[in-house]
């Protein structure tokens, strides 16, 4: 079967000329040409309808400024320490492991919660401080944000933060190994409190995991670091 | 002006100036779509902002094999606008006083048709000058091929081939990026 000439199809699609009888017959019989014709007609219809879109006004500059601000708040982990996002993207964890880790994280949080309650309802702390750190904001975070960390001789880490940016998720505390990007220990979250006491897992080498990191974590069920670090500081003993 | 492919590559490499370029090139279309979907300028600007921020953070997920930068951005913008409409609806339920909202936006065209138009308009603007000019005369001025030949001084055969090639380019782009093509090709869902 001889298909219709492509130029002719375009003419028909643009309704510039009318189908003659043999063309109409062909179009009723031939799926290929009919499909072709329908697509061309549709494109021609859309094409005739786009004149108003040709000269859209340029997008406003203040929206661009909002985009820039949004990007600054968003990810982009900060040199020189850890490029966690890349680590995270590359690391593919076995599917079965995620619930296990989530359960482990939940256990850690449960313990942290209990401990925190104990601390605040209990006696005044008199423990010895074995290491401390001053937390400073990363450059995408308002400069008045900050915090202090003390590690106590009983293995608890006391953290005070101030002026953290609001989050729709939660703030999580980590100990990072600055020499080995991607290696880190999750300590627990701040539960909207300006201070918290979190247990450091026994046996954690604080000479190695000496970089305290507070991150903004979304509620995405992903137990790994979001890559959005807000505060950091190095523990010194 | 660099090509779409180059723009995409620079975006994926984390080049922030590429995002600015994408905004200059496609921000107006994103804003237009958002405004058609949401019916008010302030929300449309918010959605435009969220779209480009999401495009930046999700730039690793952009696959040039599957569509153009504009098609990708419009897809993000649609999702963001739908999210916004849902949360507006929620707010409306809780504070039933906000009824002085806008009338339902875009009574005349579906979101899919708006995406189709933006994509085709973009492709039209990228065609070689003579292809574009002949198609504009056919589409907007409703001129016949011989009339176009007379207006432009091009031979009739050249006019025909410009139009055929131009139509083929628009169609390819629409099939790749258009919102309605998927449903349309799956079955005769739309009357002509």
UniProtKB/TrEMBL annotation, chain A:
Biological source species: Paractinoplanes pyxinae
Keyword check for S-adenosyl-L-methionine: no
Residue ranges crossing the lipid bilayer per the database entry: 96-117
Biased composition (Basic and acidic residues): 215-225
Residue ranges annotated for the Anti-sigma K factor RskA C-terminal domain, each copy included: 101-227
Highest taxon of source: Bacteria
Record flagged with keyword Transmembrane helix: yes
Chain positions covered by the region annotation Disordered: 215-237
Stated name of the protein: Anti-sigma factor
Alphabetic keyword roster: Membrane, Transmembrane, Transmembrane helix
Coiled-coil features, chain-numbered ranges: none
Cited Pfam families: RskA_C (PF10099)
Automatic annotation (TrEMBL), chain B:
SUPFAM superfamilies: Sigma2 domain of RNA polymerase sigma factors, Sigma3 and sigma4 domains of RNA polymerase sigma factors
Coiled-coil annotated spans: none
UniProt xrefs under InterPro entries: RNA_pol_sigma-70-like, RNA_pol_sigma-70_dom, RNA_pol_sigma70_r2, RNA_pol_sigma70_r4_t2, RNA_pol_sigma_r2, RNA_pol_sigma_r3/r4-like, WH-like_DNA-bd_sf
CDD domains: Sigma70_r4
Keywords annotated in UniProt: Sigma factor, Transcription, Transcription regulation
Keyword Transport tagged: no
UniProt keyword annotation of Transcription regulation present: yes
Region described as Disordered: spans on this chain: 89-113
A Pfam family assignment: Sigma70_r2
Recorded family membership: Belongs to the sigma-70 factor family. ECF subfamily.
PANTHER family, sorted: RNA POLYMERASE ECF-TYPE SIGMA FACTO, RNA POLYMERASE SIGMA FACTOR SIGZ
Full protein name: Sigma-70 family RNA polymerase sigma factor
Organism: Paractinoplanes pyxinae
